[in-house]
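Sorry to interrupt, but I need a hand with the structure work. I would like you to pick a protein and set down its sequence and fold. Please put the record directly below this note.
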Amino acid sequence: MAKQIGILLFPDVEELDALGPWEVLSFWTRTFPADGYEVRTFSRDGGEIACAKGLTVRSGHSFADVPELDVLLHPGGQGTRPMLRDAEHLAWVREQRAAVPLLTSVCTGSLVFAAAGLLAGRPATTHWRSLELLAELEPTARVRPDDRFVDDGDLVTAAGISAGIDMALHLVSRLAGVERAREVRRGIQYDPRPPI
């Protein structure tokens, strides 16, 4: 059976936080199925999700029917702010820590990890505007403000928004090798050269 990568969706999720990694990971898993991974989206109740900038997407699964995950990706966005005080969601995140071998976040998804107690004493990053809040939520975290992503073994955090693409390519490299990640990067024609 294929190993499962799940991208969490929730109201007011930042579109590129979820869809940037989705593009990388779905291109990989569909183009190279023999690598043994599948990627899927899920949300608490399944169904449609209204994202931060107005895009509506449909999650493939709910918490109740998502397959057992090998990798969990928690995006960020304004929808993470209520989660920082949502005892039920934070308990769910802690349950995932106990069950899922590799947790990842993009942007302010790492704030949720911090609020759940997962970043104590660990290196991490987040969106540049939320670096101070990350340090407030978990004073022992070793915040890395200049890193696009931070790989700390069983937990990977990415900086803001587009950094999720870099982090997802790093995951492909970890899970299937550097050459495969290069093939995926070429396949999606990701070669950032900002025009300004």
Observations:
- The two ends are 45 Å apart (CA to CA).
- DSSP finds seven helices and eleven strands in the chain.
